[in-house]
Design goal:
By secondary structure, the chain is of the alpha/beta class. Helices cover 37% and strands 23% of the residues.
């Protein structure tokens, strides 16, 4: 029997993107999954809009819907997830046409949002969890290809990644390897793999996690809030001896900021144009990771060099230069001082 997969879609003030993601998920060819939408404290009536789509009151946004409406919906709170027993959740198991919506009372960040869904999936005894950001659009065979890769490589991988392609630019967001106290891209533009390869990290969206690894490697860190939480989680997975694979035959499309590519001296430079708060958290978490969580002086130097490069890219290509530069500096200092958790609200 095909392993049972919980597809966890994280929504924050983006119901249109989430509905488009849900429509893509409904076209998956994989036979054994259930959908969990975690709403991360949205203020734009996202849950009501998503439920209206589930009831068939909002027509599909892509014109490619597969399932007829209405679907079934279960709506619960994060508090209920944390306080219920396994038997309570097993009573809720039903057909694949059920979508579970879990409400977080506030924005808990990326890891906090995903953890809400992961706790629910663990108590419902799912074998795998597939994480998707609200703007991610998986190809119909994306999940099948990930699990086919797992089986074809001896069922040894604890985490698998698809090929992640930017919706607007077509840029492939390459997975990375940890080499010599620094991250390096797992492959080049001219040498893209066609077969699975071992990697050390990529982004949360598209990450397929075998649930058993959480017992040893631990959960994504909620005190990071957003930024570099995926890479820190992958470092722990790697340090505990689990295999991480990149499956190029599995593909999703997604958006990362508002990217623009530039060429300087023959090298491609990618500007993501993230809002200032995002640069604060990424800089803070990157420094904290290599200064405190996984301490290594050489890795700290590498982290500082990447922040310096980010400074240069922002000063050359992005708007709001001074505010972003100030937030990056504050983030680096807070990382050194271990000032973690949600420091500022995303805007």
């Amino acid at each position: 029997m095909a392993p049972k997969v919980a597809i966890i879609i994280l929504n924050w003030n983006g119901w249109r993107d989430t509905i488009e993601c849900l429509e893509s998920v409904q076209r998956l060819t994989y036979p054994n999954y259930q959908i969990i939408v975690v709403d991360n404290g949205s203020t734009d009536h996202s849950v009501e809009r998503i439920k209206a789509w589930i009831r068939g009151e909002i027509h599909g946004l892509t014109g490619k819907e597969k399932a007829s409406k209405p679907l079934q919906v279960i709506e619960i709170s994060r508090a209920a997830v944390l306080n219920s027993t396994t038997s309570d959740f097993l009573k809720r198991l039903s057909a694949q046409r059920t979508i579970t919506i879990i409400r977080n009372d506030e924005n808990l960040g990326v890891a906090g949002g995903y953890n809400t869904g992961l706790i629910y999936a663990l108590r419902q005894r799912y074998e795998w969890a597939w994480l998707l950001d609200q703007d991610s659009l998986p190809e119909p065979n994306a999940l099948s290809e990930l699990l086919h890769t797992w089986e074809a490589t001896g069922k040894k991988a604890g985490v698998l990644f698809p090929s992640r392609v930017d919706k607007s630019t077509g840029v492939i967001y390459k997975p990375v390897r940890w080499r010599g106290k620094r991250w390096t891209k797992a492959f080049s533009e001219t040498n893209q793999p066609t077969d699975p390869i071992p990697v050390d990290a990529a982004g949360f969206s598209g990450m397929l996690i075998h649930m058993h690894i959480l017992q040893d490697a631990g959960w994504p860190r909620e005190d990071y809030f957003v930024g570099y939480d995926d890479q820190e989680f992958c470092l722990r997975v790697r340090d505990h001896g689990f295999v991480i694979l990149y499956a190029p035959t599995s593909k999703i499309r997604l958006s990362v900021g508002k990217p623009r590519a530039f060429r300087i001296a023959g090298r491609e430079i990618l500007s993501t144009n993230h809002p200032p708060y995002r640069y604060y958290y990424t800089s803070r978490n990157k420094i904290y990771t290599h200064w405190h969580a996984h301490p290594d002086p050489l890795a700290v130097l590498f982290a500082l060099s990447t922040i310096l490069k980010l400074f240069i890219v922002i000063l050359l290509f992005e708007q709001g230069k001074l505010l972003k530069a100030r937030f990056i500096l504050k983030g680096a200092l807070d990382g050194i001082c271990s000032k973690m958790g949600k420091v500022m609200e995303p805007v």
